[in-house]
Amino acid sequence: MSGSFPEALQFSFAPVVNRLVDWLVLHYGDHLRSLSDQLLQLLVGLENLLRALPWWLLLLLVGLLAWHASRSLARALGLTALLTLIGVLGLWDKLLQTLALVLVSTGLCVLLGVPLGIVLATRPLARRLLLPVLDVMQTLPAFVYLIPVLMLFGLGKVPAVFATLIYALPPLVRLTQLGLAQIDPSLLQAAHGLGAGRWQRLRRIALPLALPSIMAGLNQSVMMALSMVVVASMIGARGLGEDVLAGIQTLNVGQGVEAGLAIVALAMVIDRISQAYGQPRR
Hints:
This protein is mainly α. It has one domain (13-278): MetI-like (MetI-like fold, Orthogonal Bundle). Helix content is 84%, strand content 0%. The chain has 12 helices and no strands.
């Protein structure tokens, strides 16, 4: 057909990607399996810890955390009421599973994202090399992450954590770099003149001043992690996303709406608390 693209100019790099994944599985399969087992133990341990807490104690802890972040009793009561609503809907256990997944994914984002943001803020070459990678990570459809992750780790909670990590990492890296780049250089120069080393300038001046931007990045990472809950349920991660997926598959609108509202409630609780901690205090 005259309107079709010429076959002589067509090229596919899918075989190269497949060979790379096969090579990783062949040479590093044992290491990946060990990492998967350790991460699974962490996830299961956190879930069991959350289940061991009485429901009222967990609500009390969230209320105290919200009050400490915002110093507002009304906001603390409102956020506690949102979590109570999830329990009233009979989704408390699913809530704990989703919360454990989000906490582990977000913790890994912090461990990787903040150091990467520091590197990007202090190394122009690293910034030029890594920013395009972050663009690809942030714009690539989430379902694409599932294919190599499933090949490397199989079904279950662990591939869901890694897929969520890849999807939620870029905002934290970018906003950490942005917060550090916006610091007045004269402050760091004054600290250097007073004899502060590089690590002291970073820990005592740069990071505290960039904290609002870092917390905004953390907030965005948490929101993106929650948006992956339904996608993660497709590869064996249980939780609130599992009920949304079941509602879609069985055309059970009520079940899907209940689980969806529970995800929204959890997102609002985490969002309000993290935003409150990110605001500068007097």
